[in-house]
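Extended Data, record Glycosidase
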Amino acid sequence: MKPFYYSMVALLTTTIAAMVIGCSSVPEPGALRAEREPREPVVPITPVSDDEIQDWLQVPSPEWRDQIIYFIMTDRFDDGNPANSNQGYGEFDPRYNSHFSGGDLQGILDNLDYIKGMGATAIWITPPVANQWWDPKVEYGGYHGYWAENFKEVDKHFGTLEDYQRLSATLHRNDMYLIQDIVTNHTGNFFTFTGPRSTTDFSRNFERNLRSVPVNAPTQEPFHMNDYTNAEHREADIYHWTGPITNYQNERQIRTFQLSDLDDLNTSNPVVREALRDSYNFWIEKVGVDAFRIDTVKYVEFDFWHDFHHNTADEVPGILPFARSLGKDNFMTFGEAWYQSRPYDDTADREIAAYLGSEDKPKLPSVLNFPLHVDIKDVFGSGRPTDQLTFRFDSMYRHYPDPTLLFNFIDNHDMNRFLHSSSYEEMQQALLFMFTIPGIPIVYYGTEQEFDVTRRAMFADGFDSGGVDHFNPEARGYRYLQELADLRSTNPVFSRGTIEVVKDAPYGAGVLAYTMQWEDEYALVIMNTGRRTLLMDNIPLELEPGQVLERVYQVNGEYPQELVVEHGSVVHQYAAPGSSAVYLITDRTDSFPERAGSITIENLQQGQLFEFDGEISGSSSGVDNLRMIINHNTDRAIPVEQQQDGSWTAMFPAETLNNGRHYITLAGEGSDATVYSASYLVEVDLEYVLVTEYDDPVGDAHGPEGRYLYPTDDSFGNDMDIDVVEVWRAGPNLKLGLRMADPINTSWNPINGFDHVAFYIYIDVPDDDTGARAMPFQNAEVPSGMEWNYMAMLGGWMSFIYHAEGSGPEAYGTPASPAPAITVDHDSQTIYVELTAESLGEPADLSGTRIYVSTWDYDGLESANRQLRPEPGQYIFGGGDGRVDPLIMDDTGIIVVP
């Protein structure tokens, strides 16, 4: 996991969730839960008897490309045994995200019918090992499993070794598989360093975490040797005696310093290496685990991974030879190497692929596909250009030996859920995409029930459940995933094939068409990621004329039952907003109409640059109703006047578009079919002009009455103080420059280039009468004299935009797109935010637009603004009551665009 997880949730997050579930739905801590009515099985699971458990622990490895993985956070899934929920240390309280909720291994076992019925063939569970239950230093608990105190014991909250064995055996008996999440980088937070730290001696100011519960040091040898003041412990060198990472650009710190104060293991020490191999061989032998997902691999020395996987020592071999000795010849591990990934940049792919090693010195068998995840969120959730995916697939084939063995996902336990800022229809497309491309799909628990809070509990008594169970097999998301699982499992082309994007949209949301090929199987997937009906013209395919493709699946729109290849392409006239279709090749052929007539564009070149409106011209023959279609958008086709000789002239409206690449196509009606010109891809580059500046007082970032205090952690400074807001225009596009009073914070290595501040930008667009005044989740309203139509919400890890429709004090509104683009100029301390005309509803004129900017901070894993309390905490604001006081650290007045 990258620092975001530990910083925002597991360790650095000290927030206690503001959403408190009513007493009627959540018992007081320690109360016994009522007996639950048994649920009807979705797909009956064959149980195993006590005598059969050992017989079903060790089974041969599966073909991993055929698996569909369901990822479960054990504590939040289901409570099968309420007796183990509360261990009596104050660590259990399902009212709060920071505490244990009660989910356990028995709860997973009780719901295997539900999981299998959805189409999943394997489960991945968060670490079940004995954990630090509560860290008083950060007021957060280890319910998630990543703060180990003993790598070879089952945590008492989750059950017993026998419970785990029964789960594994039952999975195997029912042709399913078990993936265990593991950690090799660190234990829990049992020691720390206080006060100033020397740059050369990080042993100074050593302090043990003596109030940690249930133990204040690991109980497993040799990890118990963690007291630097003890000479024997110090010389054993089990840990890196270092402080927390402060510079994520420093390689030594990344590999050997403490990730968010979690005690960093000295994984160069042979004793530590052997102990970790032994610890995880234990689970393969005793439980029959089929695969490991490995946490935080980027924080461990590179050389460790070859030893961990491939060591051939007789006594304690690496996990792969040990698994082979038990008949698991294809034991899988996939690592979490969470590197920053930017659009059209393969840096992250290169860095992540390095963890696979080489043929001479292999390391991990596979990795989580974080770069593709970012593009999935961008394209399907934020309306970004679909050609980002074209670039990413090209990069995958360059850098990974076999993309079909990468592990794909749309969200997980360390980030906002996909539905936090996107619609259900957008999630449908993202999931269909994931199920029809190379790579093994992972579905995070609750996706099928449309969860939008990262760690909401599935069971009625758990955190943020609303007092109801969420195991509904009739939910539309559940049924949709059943259909996708069936589509993938019955067509090996999707798990084995090679992908080629044959049409994309470089201008933004829109056309995406790709093929998958494997042996004699061939599939075509067509999507419209945009919010308007689009023309799907001339999709190029390397097939013979007359070959027939048959539709096998569609969603959110009506597509032809068959497509016939014409001259190297197929034409599908229209695609509804957010619609998708899947076609498979048949062995049939059919005739197709020859399109009478022609249209040519004569004064345009591919890639031609437009810095303002420009005239284009050409000729036509045998067509009428000539029109210019920009970016496949037939709703705004521009009529084109034809002369008697067929010549025509039209004005390309570059000044109404956003900067970037755009398609131009001419269409007309022939005698028996629509005729299209060739499509031209051109570049629009409008000059941004600074139209106004707003000077904000410096030093006023302390809340509406000047009484708020920043969190006490050293990583916070005066990060939320706005100095100047610059307003730039380029045609209908808007750019804001947010110049900050102090240097921009990057303490948690944020992907967007700034941290410890979130911006809430409210925009009142002329001629939009759907405005609102309430600032969602900020206990405030926009200043008198404006109503907002759009709200951009920006942070180090997020970029969202919402329309005011459906908004309120506790509702963001309707997700809009594309999301703002963010760039950072650290030298000038300025964060630039670009909002395209499409983002703002394509206003006719930006003049008179009103803008209001406020700052606070956002906690991604709580899916909420950072808390405000009377007294500040390590990661909590002080000086107010966040339930009623405005969550505003700094703000501007109303800024009017001239």
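Summary. The radius of gyration is 29 Å.
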